[in-house]
Amino acid sequence: MELVVFYLFAALAVVTALVVVFVQRAVYGALSLIVCFAAIAGLFVQMEAKFLGAIQIIVYAGAIMVLFLFVIMLLDPQKEIFVGRKPALLIYASPLVIFFGYVLLRALLDAPQPAQGSLAERGAIREVAHALFQDYLLPFELTGILILVAVLGAMVLTKRRPAETE
Q: What is the domain extent for residue 130?
């Protein structure tokens, strides 16, 4: 039964990720990305990483996607994106697909054995907090600044300019 649930979450994540890439409207892509984040959170919970699953929902599906939808609404939600550019997108995406295929194949062939003891015994929250606030503090802070700059940039781009009088 666990394997069936895993495959359902995995299939949902892959299908909704493909919808994000190939959908014509940005709003539909963002909504599909929320479903993809929820499927990934389900995979985390199934792997007994409940903390990461909760963070996936709270941070990504909650906060980040609200920002994405806010920026999309500021731009033009009715505008179709990438119209007429699908062949170019496929050409540019093919090396990425080949790379991910290689990584997936290597991961399947060289799958490491799981660590001894459950995540609760090893203190998963303590490990994540230590890694986040000790080892990866600078990337964590830079990511926050990058998101802030992206939102401010979108607001500047959508600022209405008054009509020039002649």
A: 2-108+118-157
Cα 34 from Cα 13, distance rounded (Å): 10
Residue of 58, 18, 12 lying closest to 39 (CA atoms): 12
Distance separating alpha carbons of residues 12 and 35, to the nearest angstrom = 8
At 80, which amino acid appears? Answer: E
Reported as type and span, the H/E element at residue 94 is helix 86-109
The CATH number of whichever domain residue 33 belongs to comes to 1.20.120.1200
Query: Cα(160)–Cα(75) distance, rounded to whole angstroms?
Result: 11
Does residue 113 lie within any of the structural domains?
no
DSSP annotation of 48 = T
The string of pLDDT tens digits covering residues 85-116 is 667 667 777 787 787 778 778 777 776 655 55
Give me the mean pLDDT over the 37-56 stretch.
87
Specify whether the CB–CB gap between 147 and 64 falls below 8 A: yes
The answer to whether residues 49 and 119 touch, using CB atoms and an 8 Å cutoff, is: yes
Structural contact between residues 29 and 84, judged by C-beta atoms closer than 8 angstroms: no
DSSP 49: -
